[in-house]
Amino acid sequence: MAILEVSRIEKRFGDxxxxxxxxxxxxxxxxxxxIGSSGSGKTTLLRCLNFxxxxxxxxxxxxGRPLFNAAxxxxxxxxxxxxxxxxxxxxxxxxxxxxxxxxxxNVMLARTLLAKEEPDYKSRRREITEAIRQxxxxxxxxxxxxxxxxxYPHQLSGGQQQRVAIARALALEPDILCFDEPTSALxxxxxxxxxxxxxxxxxxxxxxxIVTHEMGFARDVADxxxxxxxxVIVEQGPSEQVIGSPREERTRQFLRRFNxx
Length: 261
Fold this sequence. Notes:
The chain has helices at 42-49, 78-85, 103-115, 125-142, 158-170, 188-203, 215-221, 239-244, 249-260, and strands spanning 2-13, 16-27, 31-35, 57-62, 65-69, 88-91, 176-180, 208-211, 224-229, 232-238.
């Protein structure tokens, strides 16, 4: 059964139609790579799924439950958007860590803020805080940063900062983990660090959507690939088919251009 169902998503910025009739599904435990040239709408799609941008049309369902319907005004309320966002974890291109917090504090922050909204937080504060701290330690250990818990972002390499960002995204136990070109700000050596972590998540059957320009990585790790161009999905299917023997001429042209660069 599909964990994510996206139907006919539309997005405009002023007079510019950025996304048109975007529809796809994603099964639990699958990895989906989204590829395409700059300006094709990849990042806007990811931002719409995370409700950092509100779609102008279409529907989004997670786990069979309607999460967003552009035709429903209630779905546009801030409270509804905030709750819907919790189903997705997002790892940004440029890390977006809070510079005044350590790696451990960055990972703990979102869980702590949510815990403070619970009615029993004050009476169980110590117990809850320790559980959140232990989860953060476990996640940072999972991404290989068990020795950098007390380091601040400026004391970490780009690859280490991105691994903290991955741990932070996992902390809320989202249904779907999303990556927006997670290696685009990194040099080749640090890129390998981050891709290794994402590969390990795929091996654990973490449900993921990965916007990437790493074609070899997409082919090896993703179960399915979507190729976008000019705001539409041109082709989607199993990764080996889309990368190895694409059906659409626009996909073939993109891959030829990419391989020549």
